[in-house]
């Protein structure tokens, strides 16, 4: 056996190193797959989970040019059951500590929603509370036909957090978002797809594979254009003037990229373009 056959690839090393971590990362081509790994509590959104997810996603968004798209999923057949109630001891909670807990969630939401790279949620099983917030922050949600969704904050005496006060109305409309937040009802995959919360419904057990396919498609697009498009989608919805200003300001930037020139050349030469992010 050659020496090279015993060596682990960088992807294998990354996966092995994170095997016992609360957040695991592995790469498949240009797609990084981020797994919430707290299956004994259905990947509850503990403080440790919040911090670890924020650190991982910040690195992938800002310090990893090999990653062009991200898939967010959960271990053990569930996405995320929401906040970890075992941490919520009102008698010992301090105001500043509670503010920091919420602030970490806000930073994580902004990384996903306003980050430069597309994020696809792969949802199996439970997607409740902060889990729903994470899914709603993603650009695309692929869910299993057995997945269940609930904006369950009010049932435990909390206000919706991790950005869902913004994202849920954006995805499903103000009236439906208000209903989901006030009632906290559990809805099934068909209803989630019907109202626009979920982009694609697949057979149980197939959400991750389908999400990777969707993310790989995004990863094949020009990275600069995707980053500017995400920025436009975040900022263009405030007014018609904002939308027109962004169109006028940002479109000339994309026209100057090497990837745009490559796309035109590849089209004329009838071949697949090769984008470099330049």
For the largest sheet, list the strands in their spatial order. 1-2-3-4-6-9
Shape: globular
Straight-line N-to-C gap: 41 Å
Any idea of the CATH class of the largest domain?
Answer: Alpha Beta
State mean pLDDT (0 to 100 scale).
87
Order of helices and strands: HHEEHEHEEHEEHHEHEHHHH
Strand content: 5-15%
Structural class: alpha/beta
CATH domain topology of the largest domain: 2-enoyl-CoA Hydratase, Chain A, domain 1
Unreliable segments of 5+ consecutive residues:
1-18
Summed up, the domain count is 2
- The CATH superfamily of the largest domain appears as 2-enoyl-CoA Hydratase, Chain A, domain 1
By DSSP (H or I, 4+ residues per run), the number of helices equals 12
**Alpha carbon gyration radius:** 20 Å
Helix content class: 40-55%
* CATH hierarchy: architecture of the largest domain: Alpha-Beta Complex
Total DSSP E strands? 9
Protein name: Enoyl-CoA hydratase/isomerase family protein
InterPro entries: ClpP/crotonase-like_dom_sf (IPR029045), Enoyl-CoA_hydra/iso (IPR001753), Enoyl-CoA_hydra_C (IPR014748)
Family: Belongs to the enoyl-CoA hydratase/isomerase family.
Organism: Paraburkholderia podalyriae
Task: Please give the structural blueprint.
Blueprint: H1 3-6, H2 10-17, E1 23-28, E2 31-36, H3 47-62, E3 69-74, H4 95-114, E4 119-123, E5 126-128, H5 130-137, E6 140-144, E7 148-150, H6 164-172, H7 174-183, E8 186-188, H8 189-195, E9 200-202, H9 207-219, H10 223-235, H11 240-255, H12 258-268
Parallel strand pairs: 2-3, 3-4, 4-6, 5-7, 6-9
Antiparallel strand pairs: 1-2, 7-8
């Amino acid at each position: 056996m050659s020496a090279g056959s015993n060596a682990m690839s960088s992807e294998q090393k990354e996966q092995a190193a994170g095997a016992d971590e609360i957040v695991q990362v592995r790469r498949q081509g240009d797609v990084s797959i981020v797994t919430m790994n707290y299956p004994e509590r259905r990947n509850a959104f503990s403080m440790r989970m919040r911090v670890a997810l924020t650190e991982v996603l910040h690195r992938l968004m800002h310090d990893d040019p090999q990653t062009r798209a991200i898939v967010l999923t959960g271990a053990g057949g569930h996405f995320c059951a929401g906040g970890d109630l075992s941490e919520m001891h009102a008698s010992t909670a301090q105001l500043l500590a509670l503010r920091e807990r919420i602030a970490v969630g806000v930073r994580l939401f902004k990384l996903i929603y306003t980050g430069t790279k597309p994020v696809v949620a792969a949802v199996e099983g439970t997607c409740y509370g902060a889990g729903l917030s994470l899914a709603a922050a993603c650009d695309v949600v692929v869910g299993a036909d057995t997945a269940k969704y609930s904006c369950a904050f009010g049932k435990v005496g909390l206000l919706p957090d991790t950005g869902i006060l913004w994202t849920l109305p954006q995805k499903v409309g103000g009236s439906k978002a208000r209903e989901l937040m006030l009632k906290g009802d559990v809805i099934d995959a068909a209803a989630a797809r019907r109202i626009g919360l979920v982009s694609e419904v697949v057979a149980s057990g197939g959400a991750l594979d389908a999400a990777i396919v969707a993310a790989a498609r995004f990863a094949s697009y020009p990275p600069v254009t995707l980053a500017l498009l995400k920025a436009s989608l975040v900022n263009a919805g405030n007014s018609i003037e904002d939308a027109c200003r962004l169109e006028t300001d940002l479109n000339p930037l994309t026209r100057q990229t090497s990837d745009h020139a490559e796309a035109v050349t590849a089209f004329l030469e009838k071949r697949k373009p090769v984008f470099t992010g330049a």
